[in-house]
Every structure is written in C-alpha cells, then in structure tokens.
Design brief:
This protein is 23% helix and 27% strand. The chain contains five helices and twelve strands. The protein has a seven-stranded mixed beta sheet. A five-stranded antiparallel beta sheet has the order 11-10-9-8-12. Helix 1 packs across helix 4 and helix 3 runs antiparallel to helix 4. It starts with 8 loop residues before the first helix and ends with a strand.
Length: 270
C-alpha cells in the first residue's frame, strides 16, 4: 500500500461546500470497484441526479478510449466519474468531451509550472507526457428528447496521475504525474474540488454556447495543431478541430478529412 494518505471523503465535502461547487453531491466513495464509469452509468439508469460523483481508490477494470485500460496504484492517483444531466438533445454534445478535457487541463495547470496541453481527443499532457485522461459516455432517449431524467445522462470519467513516481514499463515513456512535475504532496481532496469547479464551469459554458463556447480555448491549448501526425498509420498534418469535435486531418495531397476516432500519434516524442 502506498504511503500516501487515504482519500478523506469528509474533508472533501467540507472543501467542496466552502468552494461553493455544485458538482460532487451526492458523493460515493469506495476502496475498489470495477469501473467508476460503470457505477455512474448504472446509477444514471436508476435515476441518480445531476452532479452525482463516484470515486474509487482502485479500479479493477478502469478504461479509457477504445477500451484501453487505465492503470493507477491505490492512493497514487485520482479516478472518478461525474454524472451530468444535459438540457439539450444528443447532437448538441458531440464535442463535449473536448470541453471536459479543457476542464481537466484548467485544473491541473493550477498546480504545475509546466504548460498543460490537450491532445485530441481525451489526453492532458505536460512536459510531453500524459498526465490525465478523460472519457465521456452518454445515454440519450432514442427520440433525442433529453426530458426523461432516468435516461438522459452524460458520464465524465477522469483519471489523473497525482503521486506516482514510477510507472509500469509499458507506459513509463509516455506517462507523468503531478508529483513528477513538482506539484509536491498535493492532497487529492483539494485537487478533486479544483477539477469539479473547472468541470462545472466548462459544462455550463458548453450548455449555453456549444462548441463555439470552447473553440478558442481548445485551439490555444491544442497539442496537435499544425503538427505532423499519423492516423491509423497514415501520415499527415493536424489542422485543428471541427465543430463536431472531429480532428481535421490533412493528407499529403492537401485533402482535409475529419477523423472521429482511431489511433493518433504525433511526431516527435509521442
């Protein structure tokens, strides 16, 4: 077991109330679960309210985009999922994952001197390495009407490397942590309040303005823009983000196509 302190739910609740943050209540914490995303999605189907948050000290089946596993030792990271109840229909939220990524970037940037960047679609980078990841999964009625409280939901899963100083060999070249970036012995309760504060701000912003409300900020922190990249092995250039949230990929021929998924590598150092 790591020598870092266990997460203190009572202290977190005090900090959250003092900060005036709406997200994070009700708050469910456990030592171990398969996936906080699955916990939140299950709670959403059962009618859990907007802002319900699910934290686990350890996930046995934590996941990222494309089913990649999220690896984090107990007490060394911050892994949680937040249930959001949207006011609009599904198409409005096509790029919301980028807003959630911005929120995480906003929060971690408060604690480090290195610039924090966003790598489309869901990674937060610092010093050229992955510091945090974001995953968004949604439940909308088939008719597109989000009026049914028990069905319309977005779950934002967030994982941040906090205290880790040694990573498994498979990811040691590409991963970093707040501790390695000289954030010190940051209490995770305080970090979670910062993350929820930023997520609440970006969610409200996106609710009001959609992608246009975040496009300028995403462009400012876009780690791939105008860089050489490869998408599923095809070389080209990243040319920013489409309003749908897709990556604008320029092939060597000059033709632009929209990338909605796949493996994206940047060069150099990715």
């Amino acid at each position: 077991m790591s020598g870092h302190p266990a997460f203190d739910s009572r202290h977190f609740a005090e900090l959250r109330r003092a900060a005036g943050v709406g997200l994070g209540d009700p708050f469910t914490a456990c030592d171990q679960t398969e996936s906080t995303m699955d916990d939140a999605l299950s709670a959403a189907r059962a009618g859990a309210p907007h802002s319900a948050t699910f934290f686990a000290e350890q996930q046995t089946r934590g996941r990222g985009r494309r089913g990649d596993r999220w690896i984090c030792a107990p007490r060394e990271g911050l892994t949680f999922s937040v249930l959001l109840r949207p006011a609009h229909s599904a198409p409005h939220y096509s790029a919301f994952g980028l807003a959630a990524g911005l929120a995480v970037r906003d929060a971690v940037a408060l604690w480090i001197s290195e610039p924090a960047w966003l790598k489309w679609p869901n990674d937060v980078l610092a010093a050229g390495k992955k510091l945090a990841g974001v995953l968004v999964e949604s439940q909308f009625p088939s008719g597109g009407d989000p009026g049914c409280e028990t069905r319309s939901a977005m779950v934002v899963g967030i994982g941040v490397n906090v205290h880790t100083r040694e990573f498994p060999e498979s990811i040691s070249r590409i991963a970093t942590s707040l501790n390695l970036l000289d954030a010190g012995e940051l209490r995770r309760e305080k970090l979670l309040v910062s993350l929820l504060t930023a997520l609440e701000k970006r969610f409200n912003q996106y609710e009001s303005f959609g992608f246009s409300g975040i496009s300028e900020d995403f462009e400012r922190y876009d780690a791939l823009r105008d860089r050489s990249i490869s998408v599923d092995g095809e070389a080209g250039m990243a040319r920013g983000i489409d309003p749908s949230g897709a990556l604008r990929f320029e092939a060597p021929s000059g033709k632009i196509r929209l990338v909605h998924g796949g493996s994206v590598l940047s060069s150099p150092g990715d």
